[in-house]
Amino acid sequence: MHELEFLLAILVATLRAATPLMLSGFGELITERSGVLNLGVEGMMLVGAVFGFIGAVSTGSLLAGFILAMLAGAALALVFGVLTLSLMANQVATGLALTIFGTGFSALVGVSWVGTPIAGLATAIWPHLSSAPPVLQQLMLLDPVVWVAVLVPFAAHRFIYRSRAGLVLRAVGESHDVAHALGYSVLRIRYLAVMFGGAMSGLAGAYLSLCYTPTWTENMVAGRGWIALALVVFATWKPAWLALGALLFGFVTIAQFQAEGLGIDISPNLLAMLPYLATVVVLVLISRDATRLKLNAPAALGRPFHATA
Fold this sequence. Notes:
Blueprint: H1 2-33, H2 41-59, H3 62-86, H4 91-109, H5 121-125, H6 134-140, H7 144-162, H8 164-174, H9 176-181, H10 186-212, H11 224-234, H12 239-261, H13 268-272, H14 274-287, H15 290-296
């Protein structure tokens, strides 16, 4: 029974740790599939985290917090879209600026909310969570946002490969000139994709502040946005590989806590850096196969679209 509880605890912890990576990663996947490279995932997650927390505390509704977080993420992504799609600013530079802005803006907005107590989503749904049996308690920790993250890979795969809208999205990402010639509004499609990515990043940030560690602290995303970006490349823009990568990094993230619980004598600082070290190692390995990356990357990724009459 204890082994079952231990394995279940690892599974639940992995799913919860992978959830923000899954949500933000698939948002960025859809964005990049449209031919737009947005490196501002970290900033959008932080803005979503702080506005989701403020919204939940101010209204007393966690649902309102999640909605506000998605709107905040989409709004920040819209700013990115205006700068890069309409004003033709460099996408890489603008994405980096977006992350810097999101980091500073979230710290400024959330300065008076640091340390404010709040009940997490699982506790709100199950008020007697702490008194439940251990196995049931673990299952209760799988809140609705985790289940949304579990379903996202299947929905994304169906959308990209089994729907007309997904076909149009891929066409715009592969050759925006051809898509435009066929009568599709390239800018409208890319704006929608960018805003969807922002909304998903905002939701991922809100999950951190309202579920995973129900509190607000400055820079609490702690690099997860960059890991999500790396996962998209690691997956070579394929939903199944992205889901697998998110679960892998989720497991690596919780490894430090499991190692401490098992009494393994390893420096906690070394364990804390494992997810980021794994990101670097994976990127080095996949970058060696440049041909594979070129074959799978959207051909128009990062290229500005100049509309013609």
